[in-house]
Backbone:
C-alpha cells in the first residue's frame, strides 16, 4: 500500500496516496469541480496535463494553481471557492 | 536577479523524445539539462511509471529539472522558464524542443460538465491518484490511444461501459493488416485485446451529447445501429493529438502544415534549434524515441550515430502515415457543437459567437475567444477542425503560458526587446 498523506480541501481533511496530485485530492473530496467559470458553471479537470487550465484552484494561498501539475504534500491547503 | 542555469544542450520536454535526446546527447556531452512542466519525467505516456528509458535517463549525466515550464525564448541562446512561481533563465548552445502533443477536444453539448475528461486526460488523472475502482467509464473519440487508455483504466479497476471509435471498421481492418510489418505492435495489440475482452467496442460511433445537471450522468452516443444513452461516471474523450508547436513558433522555427519543419537531422530552420517527437508529426512512442535520439546525437555533433538511425525512423514515419489515414476524422464531427455549445471554456464563448468573425484573430479581438488562461490551446484546434480557419496558436506570443509578475520582470531585464 502506498503511504497516505493528509491534505485539506475546502477545510475538510482528505487522505490521498503519496504522489497524488492536488487535482486528485479535489476529485476525492467532492464532485471534482475546481473552479467556477466566468458564466458561473462548475468546472473540473479536463486535460490532466497542465494545458487546459480547468483545474485551477488556490493551493497554499497561491491562486490559479493548476492542481493537475501540483503534487500533494502533507498539510497542503486547497481551496476551490475562489475561482 | 533571477536564478541562472548554463548548459551545452538544453532539452524542453521530458517525454519519450526528450528522454531519448537527453540520453543520446549525454553519452558524450557533460552538460545536458532537460526541463519539463510535469513533476517527474516520462511525458504523458509514461507519467509516474518506471521503465527502461526513464532508468536510462536517471543513470545518464543529464540533469532533469521537473516542475519547470519553458515560457519564452529570449533571443539566441537563452530561454525563460518558471519554477515554483519563480523565474529561471537557461543559457544554452543547442536547444532541442521535445514539447509533445495535447489531445484534440471537440466541443459537444454538455462537454463542460465535471466528469468529462480527455481520454489521455483521465489516464493522467488516474496516474495522479484519482481512484477509478468501480467507476463506469465511456472511452470515446479516435485513435489507438483509446484502447490503451481503456486497458489501463480497466487494469486499475474501472468498469469500461463502452469504447466508441469514430473511424469505420473497414479502415481499422486495413490498418490492422499493416501490422505484420511490425511484430512488436502485433504483440501489443493482442495484449490490449486480451485486457479489453468483453468490453463493448463500437466503430463509426461517437458521443453527441453529455447529459447531467451539475455533473455528467450519461452520454448519448451515435452508433450505426441507432443512438443510445449510456449511464456513466466519466466520459474520457479525445479525437487524436495536436502538436505543441507554440514554443517553436515563438523561437522563429518554420511551421509547415501545423508541424515544426525539420531536416533529416531534426534541425529546424532556426540555427542551433532542433525538434523531435510529436511537434514534427504525430506517430507514437517509437517514432518519438528515434527522432529524440537523432536530435540528441546531432546536437552532440555525432553525425554518424544519428545517420545509423535514419532507416528505422523512415519505417516509423511510414507507420505514422498509415495511422493518420486509419483514424482520419469524419466530416460529421464538424457538426457536433451546436450554436449554443461553449467552445472556449476559459471565456465561456459559444460556437455562434466564436464564428461571428472569419479569422481566429477576429474572434480573439471581438469575442475574447481563445483569450483566456489556456490561450486558445483547447478551442483553437477545435475551431480549426470545425471551420477550416487557421488556428491562432501558431501565432503564439510570449509568454506562452500565464506567468507571475516576477517572471515577466526577469524577461524584461534579460531582453527588453522581446517581452
Residues:
Amino acid at each position: 500500500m502506498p503511504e497516505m498523506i493528509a491534505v485539506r480541501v475546502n477545510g475538510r481533511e482528505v487522505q490521498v496516496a503519496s504522489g497524488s496530485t492536488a487535482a486528485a485530492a479535489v476529485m476525492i473530496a467532492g464532485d471534482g469541480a475546481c473552479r467556477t467559470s466566468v458564466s458561473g458553471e462548475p468546472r473540473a479537470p479536463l486535460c490532466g496535463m497542465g494545458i487546459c487550465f480547468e483545474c485551477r484552484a488556490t493551493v497554499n494561498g497561491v491562486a490559479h494553481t493548476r492542481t493537475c501539475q501540483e503534487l500533494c504534500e502533507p498539510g497542503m491547503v486547497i481551496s476551490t471557492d475562489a475561482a | 536577479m533571477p536564478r541562472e542555469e548554463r548548459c551545452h544542450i538544453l532539452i524542453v520536454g521530458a517525454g519519450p523524445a526528450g528522454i531519448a535526446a537527453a540520453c543520446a546527447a549525454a553519452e558524450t556531452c557533460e552538460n545536458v539539462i532537460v526541463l519539463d512542466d510535469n513533476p517527474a519525467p516520462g511525458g504523458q505516456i509514461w507519467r509516474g511509471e518506471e521503465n527502461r528509458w526513464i532508468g536510462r535517463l536517471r543513470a545518464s549525466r543529464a540533469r532533469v529539472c521537473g516542475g519547470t515550464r519553458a515560457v519564452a525564448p529570449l533571443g539566441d541562446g537563452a530561454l525563460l522558464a518558471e519554477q515554483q512561481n519563480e523565474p529561471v533563465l537557461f543559457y544554452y548552445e543547442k536547444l532541442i524542443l521535445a514539447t509533445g502533443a495535447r489531445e484534440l477536444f471537440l466541443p459537444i453539448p454538455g462537454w463542460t460538465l465535471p466528469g468529462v475528461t480527455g481520454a489521455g486526460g483521465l489516464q493522467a488523472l488516474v496516474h495522479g491518484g484519482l481512484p477509478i475502482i468501480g467507476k463506469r467509464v465511456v472511452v470515446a473519440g479516435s485513435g489507438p490511444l483509446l484502447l490503451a487508455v481503456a486497458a489501463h483504466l480497466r487494469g486499475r479497476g474501472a468498469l469500461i461501459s463502452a469504447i466508441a471509435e469514430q473511424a469505420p471498421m473497414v479502415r481499422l481492418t486495413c490498418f490492422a493488416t499493416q501490422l505484420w510489418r511490425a511484430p512488436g505492435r502485433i504483440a501489443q495489440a493482442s495484449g490490449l485485446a486480451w485486457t479489453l475482452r468483453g468490453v463493448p467496442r463500437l466503430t463509426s460511433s461517437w458521443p453527441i451529447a453529455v447529459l447531467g445537471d451539475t455533473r455528467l450522468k450519461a452520454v448519448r452516443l451515435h452508433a450505426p445501429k441507432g443512438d443510445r444513452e449510456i449511464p456513466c461516471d466519466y466520459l474520457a474523450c479525445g479525437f487524436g493529438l495536436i502538436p505543441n508547436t507554440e514554443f517553436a513558433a515563438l523561437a522563429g522555427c518554420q511551421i509547415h502544415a501545423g508541424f515544426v519543419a525539420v531536416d533529416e537531422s531534426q534541425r529546424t530552420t532556426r540555427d542551433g534549434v532542433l525538434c523531435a517527437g510529436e511537434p514534427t508529426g504525430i506517430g507514437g512512442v517509437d517514432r518519438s524515441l528515434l527522432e529524440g535520439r537523432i536530435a540528441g546525437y546531432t546536437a552532440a555533433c555525432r553525425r554518424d550515430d544519428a545517420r545509423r538511425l535514419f532507416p528505422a525512423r523512415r519505417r516509423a514515419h511510414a507507420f505514422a502515415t498509415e495511422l493518420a489515414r486509419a483514424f482520419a476524422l469524419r466530416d460529421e464531427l464538424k457538426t457536433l457543437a451546436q450554436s449554443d455549445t461553449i467552445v472556449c471554456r476559459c471565456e465561456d464563448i459559444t460556437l455562434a459567437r466564436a464564428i461571428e468573425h472569419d479569422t481566429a484573430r477576429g474572434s480573439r479581438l471581438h469575442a475574447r475567444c481563445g483569450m483566456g488562461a489556456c490561450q486558445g490551446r483547447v478551442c483553437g484546434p477545435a475551431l480549426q477542425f470545425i471551420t477550416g480557419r487557421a488556428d491562432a496558436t501558431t501565432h503564439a506570443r510570449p509568454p506562452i503560458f500565464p506567468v507571475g509578475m516576477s517572471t515577466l520582470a526577469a524577461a524584461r531585464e534579460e531582453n527588453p526587446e522581446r517581452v
Remarks:
- The radius of gyration of chain B is 21 Å.
- The first helix of chain B runs from residue 16 to 26.
